[in-house]
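Recap from last week: sequence in, structure out.
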Amino acid sequence: MLPKAYPDLSSGGSRGMFIIVAGNIGSGKTTLTKKLSERLGWRPHFESVQNNPYLKDFYEDMERWSFPLQIYFLTHRFNIHRSIENSNFTDIQDRSIYEDAHIFARALFEQKYLSPRDYENYIGLYESMIQFLYTPDLMIGLRRSIPKLLDRIKSRGRNYEKSISVDYLTRLNSYYDDWFEKYSFGKSLIIDTDEFDFLENEDDFDFLVQKIYDSIDQKDLFFPKAENSTHLS
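Predicted structure tokens:
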């Protein structure tokens, strides 16, 4: 049984779009989510980091805390996803529920931080939950090389991220490449963020906004505010 697709809006409807931003740790997801929400008036939903009760412990002892951390993220993102479905706004989410299972739980299981029993339990719960979710209108996937990821992680100075290894980031990158290639929940746009400095370079950001605009079907929903509607064609 596949996740639900949003109903066709060609005959009219009041909902906005649902965009997800996916990518490895340090790939620029939060930055892009914030900049797009500010430029386009989209409502942002950020990954729960500051208030996460497990994250610091997880990076200190992955085997002990991997299962409760993954359950926390799964519940958090499921609730956000459901709230977006009931929204009339265009919403953009920093990391999705799909990545929890296809990237992070997979990595933890294959590194033996998640036991087979816990992993099976987790995947069963995930597969049950996504049957109740509509799929996003667009997935923006951010690719970034390991040196660039490390530079970004270092620059933001989060203490609990200091223990993240190159091997772990490399594994996640390979899983993201695999997931991007097989992504089948809807439209996708994959961006190499080594080539685009959308944080500091406004021309690069404008170019990225244009690519996103070109990737969607619902052109009339791209700009919630009428005064912005002349920026793209």
